[in-house]
Design brief:
mainly beta, Pnp Oxidase, Chain A, 2 domains, 9-stranded antiparallel beta sheet, 4 helices, 16 strands
Length: about 230
C-alpha cells in the first residue's frame, strides 16, 4: 500500500493550457508513447508509431499500428508520453485508418522526479514570508509578502500569487524566504522563480489567486523547520 501511495504522491496535476501544450511538445516523434482505451472488463492497448501536436497546436495527432483492434470514438483515449511519464485523457475528434486526432486534454498528470517529494496543502491553509531580491534596491526598502503556499520541500515551493504582486516574481527573479507560518527564520534561504503558470478562470475563482509559481531553492530549507511547518495543525 505504501508503494502505491508513494507512486500517487509522485504525480502532480496541471490544468494550465500553456503548460499542457509545452509538455506535449516535449515528447518527440521517435520516443515511445503508449495509448489505450478502457472497457468494463478489459483494456485495449495500441502501439503508437507517431505522437505529435496537430496544426495550430489545437489537436494531438497519433499514428498507431494495429490491424486487429480499432479505436472506439465514443469513449476517451488515454495516453502516456515519455516526458516526465505524463498521462492524460483525450476525446476523439477525428478517426482515420491507423490514425486518430484527440482534443487537447483539460489536465495532465506528471511524475515528480525531485529528490525530496513536496508536501501539499489545501489553498489558504499555509503561508510563508518572502522578500523579492533586486540589486538596485536595498533589502530593507523592499516589501515582505505573506504568500499562500501550495506545496513545499527542502528544494522548492509552489506559491499562489495575485496580479498585483506578479511583477515582483518574474521568471528568473530571486526571492528570500524569511519565515514559515508564524515562525521567523534565523537566516533567510534564497530561491529562484523557475516556473509561472496562469490558472484557468475556474481554478482562480476556486482558490482565490490567478497565478501559480514554482520556486527552486538555491539553499535548502532547514529540515527541522520544514518538519514543524508541515506537521498537521
Amino acid at each position: 500500500m505504501s508503494n502505491i501511495s508513494d507512486l500517487i504522491a509522485s504525480y502532480q496535476v496541471s490544468s494550465s493550457s500553456r503548460e499542457i501544450v509545452d509538455i506535449l511538445m516535449k515528447s518527440h516523434k521517435d520516443q515511445v508513447s503508449l495509448m489505450w482505451q478502457n472497457y468494463n472488463d478489459h483494456r485495449i492497448i495500441f502501439n503508437v508509431q507517431t505522437f505529435e501536436m496537430g496544426q495550430f497546436r489545437k489537436k494531438i495527432r497519433i499514428l498507431f499500428d494495429d490491424t486487429t483492434n480499432t479505436i472506439d470514438p465514443k469513449i476517451p483515449v488515454y495516453v502516456k508520453i515519455p516526458f516526465r511519464e505524463t498521462v492524460f485523457k483525450g476525446e476523439v475528434s477525428q478517426l482515420l485508418p491507423r490514425e486518430v486526432f484527440l482534443t487537447l486534454p483539460q489536465e495532465i498528470h506528471m511524475r515528480e522526479f525531485r529528490e525530496n517529494l513536496r508536501t501539499r496543502f489545501e489553498p489558504g491553509k499555509k503561508h510563508v514570508s518572502l522578500r523579492p531580491v533586486q540589486d538596485s534596491i536595498a533589502a530593507d526598502k523592499l516589501p515582505v509578502f505573506k504568500t499562500t503556499i501550495m506545496d513545499i520541500s527542502q528544494a522548492g515551493m509552489g506559491l499562489l500569487i495575485s496580479d498585483n504582486n506578479l511583477h515582483f516574481f518574474k521568471k528568473g527573479s530571486l526571492i528570500d524566504l524569511l519565515g514559515m507560518g508564524e515562525t521567523e527564520m534565523a537566516e533567510s534561504c534564497r530561491g529562484e522563480v523557475v516556473h509561472i503558470a496562469k490558472l484557468t478562470p475556474l481554478q482562480a475563482k476556486k482558490i482565490g489567486f490567478p497565478y501559480r509559481l514554482g520556486v527552486r531553492m538555491n539553499e535548502k530549507i532547514p529540515e527541522q523547520l520544514l518538519s514543524v511547518f508541515c506537521s498537521p495543525i
